[in-house]
Amino acid sequence: MRQVSIIGIGQTKVDEHWDKSFRDLGVDAVLAAIQDAGSPPVEALYLGNMLAGQLTGQEHTAALVADYAGYRGIEALRVEAACAAGSSAFRVGYMAVASGLIDVAVVVGVEKMTDMLGNEVTAALASAADADYEVMHGVSFVALNALLMRRYMYEHQVERAAFANFAINAHRNAMNNPNAMFHAPLTEAAFGKARMIADPVSLLDSAPICDGAAAAVICPTARAREFSAHPVHVRASAVATDSLALHDRKDLLFLQAGRLSAQKAYAQAGAGPEDMDLFELHDAFTIMSALSLEAAGFAPRGQGVRLAQEGEIFLGGRIPISTMGGLKGRGHPVGATGMYQIVELAQQLRGEAGKNQVDCRLGMAQNIGGSGGTIITHIFESAD
Amino acid sequence: MRQVSIIGIGQTKVDEHWDKSFRDLGVDAVLAAIQDAGSPPVEALYLGNMLAGQLTGQEHTAALVADYAGYRGIEALRVEAACAAGSSAFRVGYMAVASGLIDVAVVVGVEKMTDMLGNEVTAALASAADADYEVMHGVSFVALNALLMRRYMYEHQVERAAFANFAINAHRNAMNNPNAMFHAPLTEAAFGKARMIADPVSLLDSAPICDGAAAAVICPTARAREFSAHPVHVRASAVATDSLALHDRKDLLFLQAGRLSAQKAYAQAGAGPEDMDLFELHDAFTIMSALSLEAAGFAPRGQGVRLAQEGEIFLGGRIPISTMGGLKGRGHPVGATGMYQIVELAQQLRGEAGKNQVDCRLGMAQNIGGSGGTIITHIFESAD
Q1: Best mutation site among B3, B75, B239, B246 for testing chain A: the one with the most A CBs within 10 Å?
Q2: Ramachandran area for residue A47 (φ above 0: left; ψ -120 to 50: alpha; else beta)
Q3: Most-buried pick from A5, A311, B123, B302 (CB within 10 A)?
Q4: Which of B379, B327, B337 is CA-nearest to residue B11?
């Protein structure tokens, strides 16, 4: 099996892109990544997307974006695992290059959510949950996270305020990311009086609905220096699953798929959580940040929230998270998010994170589908 | 890169399954394939599906089916390329095993279309075409195929009746396939007076809307005999794309992606169309059969329809197609179809096709997404 490296990255700003269609966003990110890689001969495109069928009436998006990017004819497939679609496409691209079947591939995550009304988007997002046994009772994703957060607060005896730093950190880091959706700092006071959506999940616990696309070009590590002065090596790629429905889980407050995929990734990389210099986690809701930190081994059960309270998740802390704004500050265009995480991690490992630069050699990204039904972990290493 | 073989196959009957949900169908096919393979240790599941999000409100289907099949925790991803979703999942499974990352994977194609009204299904199917530039003008998939068929008839000076044998052959072969939807023979007279849907495409030119799931278990060829007495070897796997929109094609009547993916597949297999003992093609509409035969090199331009007229596509002919009924006779549960083609080809290569058995060593399957925007070709060889 061949080793694989990232040789180019590209992204659009995360925003409400009223003047851009789904394909426009995908093409912009793809071409930016290919240009960043010095225009290598791209043989395949793997596209992560969750909702284009439901929200824009367009399936078959991989061939479409390949064509409009100027690559008509190449292999192109779409991969989906709810909100983990972005990193699931990266997983497939990784397998394609690792196998020797493809030399240069571009992986792109794309989502266009703002063409529809909010309630339609909420309904579409719920299709990541179990349609027959969760959604048919009327539950939304915010509601599912509210159940988790309420239970976490009860089991571990913490107040809502304990989660504030997850949102504050994300917004602070987004300030220096020109591609982030939000450039407004958050205070603890603002977090405290934020409008409730599904108690105890407030507006400021939640990532926004938005549009965006992010892409990476990958090739065999042996050839990476041909195309890039600062390749980023894939040290681990792992997918694990769990029941879609919360009520089917053995332990409501433990992301079993996060633990499984992190363990597989650590084994592949020959490293552990103590070796990670930063962690791009899936902070769609503040409760997910706490649970992710615990599942990935950065904190014991019930202690994930402490890392936020103690500032260990900040840029200078023990394990910086959401370093370019995360889902909360940069935005969460669902099927694109996994690729934003990977692209931002590459920015960090290339030393191109500007004011948010973390001193790093190894970093991990973890992308969550649904309420944890699919969790995908990648570990990357700087070549410098 | 490792060679890959099929060690188990399974399928549900193609039908209107009013008593089965999407997950039920997927689980039935997955478990049948795993049982057929002697219950090897499955590490990953790749699921091909096109429309579950739009038709059943359920994305995130790979983790769901893995869980309900009893494999909670394993890697699971969904792959989509419109009606080529089934074989696109097989392509990903092939890459996973070829790379050495996964030893035993199950690939399943699933579609549940009969829970909705016909016009809703028609609208959902149109999402395989270009939503912004084709569908917004009101075109359906039948209409797109009608444009192609009308032009083919004009350019190549053939009558509608010339296409009859594509449907007659499919229905005749379906008679002996217990998993086929239709078990009624077709006559030329019936074809001639069939109800028009979009002139010149009649009801009997068109594959039906239906439900079904088909699955295959794959592993490295080196280990295939551990699990199966009659493995089927993957000799080629190739994906190619074209513009989604018909009006963007250089040549309306030539499936460029079919040609490209067939050429790649022939090169991988070290074989040509003359070496193929049968060809499971994508006869969603009779015109697609003619175009596929031409693109894959079985007939010159404009002559694909002659192979039908001359009976060369029948079981005893030069290149048998739709040997278990094809999309027209067995049925076309869109995201599952590519896996039905592969499973049926495996039945043939294992010598298990009953009354429809073709004397064969090498066979090809070609799965079409949209009106040719994605075309995926696989070549398989009998191990016997």
Answers
A1: B75
A2: beta
A3: A5
A4: B337
- Number of compact structural domains in chain A: 2
Which residue in A has a C-alpha nearest to residue B97's C-alpha?
A99
Please say which residue of B195, B217, B232 terminates a domain. B232
**Same domain as A336, residue A218:** no
Catalytic residue among A17, A332, A360, A378: A332
**What is the reported pTM?**
0.98
Residue B384 binned pLDDT confidence (cut-offs 50, 70, 90)? confident
**Pair (B42, B163) in one structural domain:** no
Tokens of B359: 């004397």
Structural domain that includes position A18: 4-116+209-232
B100·A101 Cβ contact <8 A: no
Judged by a CB distance cut-off of 8 A, whether residue A295 touches chain B is: no
Co-location of B190 and B224 in the same domain: no
The answer to whether the Cα torsion of B191, B194, B196, B202 is positive or negative is negative
CB contact under 8 A, A128 and B59: yes
Look up B247 and say whether it is catalytic.
no
Any chain A CB within 8 A of the CB of B135? yes
- What CATH number does residue B248 fall under? 3.40.47.10
Give A185-223 as a DSSP string: ---HHHHHTPPEEETTEEGGGBPPP-BEEEEEEEEEHHH
Q: Are B168 and B186 in contact (CB under 8 A)?
A: yes
A188 burial level (CB within 10 Å; 0-12, 13-18, 19+): exposed
Under a CB-based contact definition with an 8 Å cutoff, are residues B140 and B122 in contact? yes
CB-CB contact of B244 with B373 (8 Å)? yes
Omega before B200 within 30 of 0, i.e. cis: yes
**pLDDT band, very low/low/confident/very high, at B88 (cuts 50, 70, 90):** very high
Residues 6+ apart with CB under 8 A from A188: A161, A164, A168
Residue B46 CA, distance from chain mean position: 16
Gyration radius of chain B's alpha carbons: 19
A332 is catalytic: yes
Which chain A residue has the Cα nearest residue B241?
A73
Model pLDDT, residue B234 = 98
User: Are residues B259 and B374 both part of a single domain?
Assistant: yes
Kindly name the residue from B83, B210, B219, B360 that is annotated as catalytic.
Answer: B83
Mean pLDDT along residues A175-200? 97
Query: Chain A neighbours among B 90-129 (CB < 8 Å)?
Result: 91-92, 95-96, 98-101, 123-124, 126-129
* Pair (B57, B173) in one structural domain: no
Q: What is the pLDDT of residues B333-342, one digit of tens each?
A: 999 999 999 9
**pLDDT score at A115:** 82
pLDDT at B292: 98
Both A219 and A345 in one domain: the answer is: no
Looking at the structure, tell me whether residues A89 and A132 fall in a common domain.
no
Bridge partners of residue A212, in order along the sequence: A111
Within this chain, do residues B213 and B295 fall inside the same structural domain, yes or no? no
B318/B304 Cα distance (integer angstroms): 13
Helix then strand then coil, % of chain A, to nearest 5: 40, 20, 40
CB B135 within 8 A of CB B278: no
Looking at every residue in chain A, the average pLDDT score rounds to 97
Q: B residues 353-382 near A, CB within 8 Å?
A: 369-370, 373-374
